[in-house]
Amino acid sequence: MLNFLSAVSSLPLAKIEVGHHLYWQLGNLKIHGQVFLTSWFVIGLLVIASLAATRNIRRIPAGIQNFMEYALEFIRDLAKNQIGEKDYRPWVPFIGTLFLFIFVSNWSGALIPWKLIRLPEGELAAPTNDINTTVALALLTSLAYFYAGFSKRGLGYFKKYIEPTPILLPIAILEDFTKPLSLSFRLFGNILADELVVTVLVLLVPLFVPLPIMALGLFTSAIQALVFATLAAAYIHEAMAGHGDEGHEEH
Amino acid sequence: MFDFDATLPLMAVQFLLLAALLNVVFYKPLTKAIDERDDYIRNNDLGARDRLAKAELLTKQYEEQLAEARRQSQALIANAQADAQKIGAQKIAEAQQEAQSKREQAAKEIEQQKQEAMQSLEQQVDALSRQILEKILGAQLVNR
Question: A108 and A234 in contact (C-beta within 8 Å)?
């Protein structure tokens, strides 16, 4: 199917390439260069925006400082709502960076015409449409909530596996695997699917028709960033608070 | 699509570095700025509240003083009015008394003068009647 589509397509703007990567050799390790190129762009954007916002901090904020303070307050509220007033502060950088990185990645993938920059192989796209990125973020989230649980409750953290009843032990253990799995695949799937849908539509009708889907893609991208950060915060809270806190379901 | 390789750990490390970097250049300074602003606003708010309470206290005091002064002035006015009424009544009574006594005196004088006039008239009546008699009857008859 994909081969057929790419055979049909000769348009330079709309070519479906999944699984083609710009490989960089690092020692005897292979890495996906295009992912790092766009992620560096995203990181650069975030750092430049942060530096611009904090270069000249005023009591009455204006311009970029105002905007970044709005972003920070949004992140703080998110963390506070999930983790609670008492413990949220140390987790703001982690959760906030998750949100900002995913959000800016997604939107850069949707808004910036990366295709105009030609690579020898593969194509530039949002870093979050590579499974390596999303799995890396999801595993970090797992590590984060394990760390949160252990630092808060010590070895008592293991009690959560048998807390309501030991019968649920397998499910409790399984949860630790499904959490990063669902986190990473949700993000990866949404972003990749969105890019594929847009690409296919552009392939079929190059003008105007893909625009609503692109707008929807922007919306989904934002929602996915929010969901990832919210769930990470919820997992951390759950690890710190113990069992009996299953209110946060997946989206 | 699912080819995992060194991208994964490198991306994780890169993400952690980004978090650390943003913590230094973004979260800490802006959180500090926001907290300082919150403190500033809270302090100002507290100060303003204090001043407002003080102002309200002062207003209350002044209002009480004002009410007290008003009460005093009213009492003063009432006193003065009562005094004035008393004095007026007294003066009127005195004047009436004086007028009465003067009238009585005048009446007495009139009576006295009337008496005197009557007396002198009576004396003259005797002399006149004698003269009339003398004129009518002649001096011999009368003196007889």
Answer: no
Please name the residues in contact with B37: beta carbons below 8 A apart, sequence gap of 6 or more. A59
CB of A62 within 8 Å of any CB in chain B?
Answer: no
Confirm whether A140 is domain-assigned.
Answer: yes
Q: Does A47 touch chain B (CB under 8 A)?
A: yes
Is residue A17 domain-resident? no
Of A29, A47, A130, the CB nearest to B21: A47
- Does A218 fall in a domain? yes
Closest residue, chain B, to A143 (C-alpha): B12
Is position A180 within any domain? yes
Residue whose structure tokens are 């608070």: A241
Mutate to test the interface with A, among B26, B31, B37, B44 (most CBs of A within 10 A): B26
* Domain tally, chain A: 1
- Check: complex ipTM more than 0.85: no
d(CA A172, CA A178): 10
- pLDDT tens profile A119-164: 777 778 888 888 888 999 999 999 998 898 888 888 888 888 887 7
What is the domain count for chain B? Answer: 1
Average pLDDT, chain A: 82
